[in-house]
Design goal:
about 300 residues; mainly alpha; 14 helices; Phage exclusion protein Lit family protein; Peptidase_U49_Lit_pept
């Protein structure tokens, strides 16, 4: 085995571990899927973002992994940036725009948030090297969460890993459909179906996992659903502006977001909705999308904002 082949095998094992870590209660199934379908992991090292699958391969470039990491950790900053306003608006039945305007500390934290997302965009566009734009307080992807002392960053680490896991499950489903001769005639429909399958695979046996760990079902569902929101943010940022409304290969970003996060058993008062609304507010304000809805709860606000992106 050549050094390059060995490197690809190492990445394959790394991605299997990521998928197992995202859904530990389905480890045996994941290993059986890999044994049965056995796609080769092909590493690309070019300027084009690549995460795609064929019958026999999952192709990924190192750049997109860095993008997931950078946007995932940056997306976590939406919590301290916008969640206070989301929660206050919901609690006191105020307009979200009024709460944002009245937040005296928003300018500073929002500037940091926007700078991080903008850095990721510059990296995606090829205008900056990863070394030039990488924020010093974000751990590199080679870091393990045991080396992170900050509790918030441990949570961000876990959610980012899970978001990457979601993307890998999506691509693995393409491999399965191809080998099983079940590919959709319409590419956009298959992309949506792979989103839904990934979400269902990750959430279907949460009750088993929660029971084995003496955890609350809603708490586990909330955490995994929050990772889907980070995946949504990453999906939005890596989709070219002219394709966000959809094309022949993909439904619009808004439709894909709805398929990933709306069909859920989460309770209406779950903290998940605060996080989802905060991330969507960040997208809107980064893209200068105006909004000023009537007072509404965080879940309703999330549903409102999705239609704008």
């Amino acid at each position: 085995m050549s050094n390059f082949e060995q490197k690809q095998e190492e990445f394959k094992q790394c991605f299997i571990e990521l998928m197992k870590g995202a859904v530990p209660e389905r480890t045996d199934e994941i290993l059986k899927h890999w044994e049965h379908y056995n796609p080769k992991m092909v590493i690309k090292n070019g300027n084009k973002l690549t995460l795609e699958a064929t019958r026999d391969e999952i192709r990924v470039d190192l750049k997109i992994i860095d993008v997931f990491w950078l946007i995932g950790f940056s997306g976590w900053k939406a919590i301290e940036t916008y969640i206070p306003s989301v929660m206050t608006a919901s609690l006191f039945n105020n307009r979200i725009l009024d709460e944002l305007k009245n937040d005296e500390e928003l300018d500073v934290v929002e500037r940091t948030y926007k700078e991080r997302i903008k850095a990721a965009e510059q990296f995606i566009e090829g205008n900056s090297s990863i070394e030039d734009i990488w924020p010093p307080d974000i751990p590199k992807i080679t870091s393990h969460d045991d080396g992170i002392d900050d509790v918030e960053y441990k949570a961000a680490y876990d959610l980012t890993v899970s978001a990457l896991g979601f993307a890998l499950f999506h691509e693995f489903r393409h491999v399965m459909l191809d080998q099983d001769r079940e590919r959709h005639n319409v590419r956009a429909e298959e992309e949506m179906a792979c989103d839904v399958w990934a979400r269902e695979f990750i959430t279907a046996k949460i009750a088993t996992y929660a029971s084995s760990k003496s955890l609350d079902y809603q708490t586990v569902l909330q955490r995994r659903s929050m990772s889907f929101v980070l995946a949504v943010l990453i999906l939005h940022e890596i989709t070219p502006v002219w394709d966000r409304g959809g094309n022949c290969d993909y439904f619009s970003v808004a439709e894909r977001i709805k398929s990933i996060i709306f069909n859920t058993q989460l309770e209406d008062n779950s903290h998940f909705w605060n996080f989802a609304a905060a991330v969507l507010i960040g997208i809107c304000r980064m893209k200068h999308i105006s909004f000023n809805p009537e007072p509404m709860c965080a879940k309703e606000l999330t549903m409102f904002l999705v239609e704008l992106v």
